[in-house]
Structures are given as C-alpha cells and as structure tokens.
Amino acid sequence: DIRYTIGSATPVAGVPLTLALTLVNLADNCAPLAGYAIYVWHCTAAGVYSVYNENSVAANYLRGVQATDSDGVVRFTTVVPGCYSGRMPHMHFEVYRSLALATRAANKIRTSQLAFPTETLQTVYASSSAYTGSIANLARMTFATDNVFSDGYSLEMVSMQGDPASGYTANVTVGLAV
Does the pLDDT at position 14 exceed 90? Predict the structure, then answer.
C-alpha cells in the first residue's frame, strides 16, 4: 500500500487503484520473471510528487518497490494518478534483477511509464473533488501531444476495470528479453 508516507496514518486522497504488473521474459516464451524488483512512483490526484515537489524524502507517498512473485506479478495499492499540466496521466516504473539491486538507480535494467485510458480517467476525475485540477489539465492533453507518449503508448497502456465508488484495478504485462 503506497498511499501513505512511511510512519503516517493518513492516506493520499484519490480514487483507490490496485495496480497488477506482470513481468515476463520475451526470450523464454513469455515465462514469468520471478524475484525481479519493480519500483513504482506517480503523482497525487492534484499532480504532486512526493520527494520531487515536496523536496523532502520524509514525504514518500505514492512510491514503492517489491519483488515479483512466482507468476511474475507485483500488486500495489494506490490511487488513480492525477493529470498535471503538460503530461497525460501516467505512472513511472523501474525494473531491477532483485530487491537487493533496487537500492541504486544505476542497477536498473529498464525504465518506462504506464498510460491510462482517457475515458476512464475522465470518469474518475469527474467523480472526486480530489481531481479538480486534473479535469482541466486532461482536457488540454492528448497522447499525440504528450512529449513521452507521442511516439506510441499501446504497449504501456493498462487495462482498467471498476468504478469510482469501489475503486479500480489496472493490469499490464511488461515483457523483457533477459
């Protein structure tokens, strides 16, 4: 559960989201990659990042790392990311060969971002006052005008199920040739 700063009892506001990311080996018939570490981070419903925007490592909400299970899966409990000016909503992630190696950015083997379906985001943003600023920011953006996703995003797009009242699940499979 990455909705909290470590040691805090107050979660970040937003519509609940469970992210399930599956890591597979493209060099081995998409076999699951167990024991790999995935570090995820994203902004709040208001478009604020811990550490970056707050300039303090003491605020570390919406950041977490864990190892893939025997099926190559990690699950993070979080909130649907907001939309800040100039970017489509997204989540960042890095992949490491193990948790032990995830302590240094130099050890990462891949870095990427996850994209979210625009129609689902519009529904989420309209349902919660936490996303007030995200409504206008999303209305000004498209994947074609985003400086990261403009070259393509189909392999980074999550599939989402759920509703604003009970929350969403997002699923994505990431393939690596290792």
Answer: yes
The model carries a pTM of 0.93
Q: How far apart are CA 158 and CA 174, in angstroms?
A: 10
54: confidence class by pLDDT, cuts 50, 70, 90: low
